[in-house]
Each structure stands twice: as structure tokens, then as C-alpha cells.
Amino acid sequence: MKQDATRNAAYTVDCEDYVHVVEFNPFDSGDSGNLIAYGGNNYVVIGTCTFQEEEADIEGLQYKTLQTIHHGIRVGGIAWSPETKLDSLPPVIKFCTSAADMKIRLFTSDLQDKNEYKVLEGHSDFINGLVFDPKEGHGIASVSDDHTCRIWNLEGVQTSHFALNSPGMSVCWHPEESFKLMVAEKNGTIRFYDLMSQQAILSLESEQIPLMSAHWCLKNTFKVGAVAGNDWLIWDITRSSYPQVKRPVHMDRACIFRWSTINENLFATTGYPGKMASQFQIHHLGHPQPIILGSVVVGSGLSWHRTLPLCAVGGDHKMLFWVTEM
Prior knowledge:
This protein is an all-beta fold. 0% of the residues lie in helices and 52% in strands. Strands 1-28-27-26 form a four-stranded antiparallel beta sheet, with no helix packed on it. It starts with 10 loop residues before the first strand and ends with a strand. 46% of the residues are buried.
């Protein structure tokens, strides 16, 4: 599995705006193409990507824009709903965004005439993470610098509210048990909440700060990963509330941590944009060094493909894609 670690992106797609956030649809939308959304300074673009790794008759990457939605303000985050379906008639595109005005917008489109959105208001500071309930798609969880985690229904009503001890940085929903939620705080604490009892049931400690991003491994929900300070950290929640493994990874602080959707030992991290470029790395728990080192001019956002060992990162007027071997 020896690969030349430092490399350019395998594919790039030119975009008409700076890409602040990029998100593959993590759910099966019933179509062979892979839905991807990216957010710029004032709009969201929905497209499909098909890669030569999945379809032999395609050379490289086939990308098609399905819809450009005027957003009016810089997009901070994007979360897909499992209700999105491309094979229904008419198709259903459903996702929500967070934005610089501290509001969440819930969009529903049929890619033709219907293009609606609802505004969810309640946070009083920047929203750092948001996610749909992955089973039904009937709830949205969000965390913010205002030291809260909030759960909303699709009407925009808050159904739960958890007070945090520091800014909420990441929120993840358990893939099967939709009453379990993971919330990561900047002070290094990661808590798991039971939404039925509205109580915290377990907590983990990073022992270093600031914790900027954490992610629940969907292939093995006993695993949690995060970046704090310059390091990545991995917990096995059956063994300890402290990390099992940690390594220094980015010189000037790490920014985002994301597990692969298909391999519980594969994950990616990004660093903060430095003077020249942001560092992007793919890691495998069986390897002491990163298996891919990439660099992006002011990169932002990080998302794994649903069925391939392939990552997307946003950049200056482009999306960049890196492919690794399993």
C-alpha cells in the first residue's frame, strides 16, 4: 500500500465562487450519480459527480450542476436530509445550511418550479455544526458559539435545548439509534446525549484545547475522532474516556476531522489556511505516517464520498478531490 504521499488532487471542478463548504450526500438518493453541494459567498450549488473509479466508461470525473440556489449570505455549513431522492417523480432535494447571520435555512426543491426554504432562528452566535436525523430526516441538530446545542423539527420549532460549557464545535447523530447524539465542545469535552431522557449518558475528554472538530465513526460507533490543538485523537468509547491514540498532525493547528464512510481505519484532517495554503491529509490507523499529503490554496470544508475512498475539499473557485487506495 506504499503510496507517494505528497500529491496534487486527482480531480478538480471549477466553481463560480470561493467554496466555503462542500458536502457529499451521505445517503442513498436512488440514483447512480453522487449528489454533492457546495456553498459560496451567497449561493449554494447542487450537482452530481460520477468518477471513473465507479463507472468504467467515464474518463476521470463527470460533474453536472443540477441547480444553483441564491442564498444571499455566506454559507457556513451544509447538511443533507435522508429524504433527498433523485429517483422519485418529481425528485426531492432537501438540505439545510447555516450562515453568517446565525440562522439555519431549510431548503426543499424538485429541481424545477418548487424551490422553498424555511428560516430557523434561535442561535445568538456563529453555528459551527448541523446535521439531520439520519433515520427519518425529521429533526435537525445544531451547535453554536452561543454554548448551546439545539434540536429543531422541520417546522422550525425547537424541540430540545442543551446548555454547553463552551462553544459547540461538532454534532453527530447515531446512524441507527436516532435518540443518541454526540456533541463536541471547544473545551475538549465530547458528550453523548439521550434525546428521550434529555440527559448526557457518557463523556470523553481530549485533555487538550482548542478542540475544533470531532466526528463519530459510522462504520464503528465505538470510535470517535477529533482534532485539538495540533493533534488528531481517537477514542474507543468502550475502553476509556481518554484518547487511545493521538499524533501531531498540522503545524499551525488542525481544523477539521472526518472519518471515511466506508473504512473505520481511514480518516482525513485539514489544517488552518497558513500563509500559502491549507494542509490536507488522509490517514490510516495501520500506518504511522499520513498516506496522502495535499495542499489547497485556502482550503475549506471536507467531505468523504459515500462509497469510495475519496475526499472533497473546497478551494478558491474550485472543488478538489483526492483518491486513496483502501
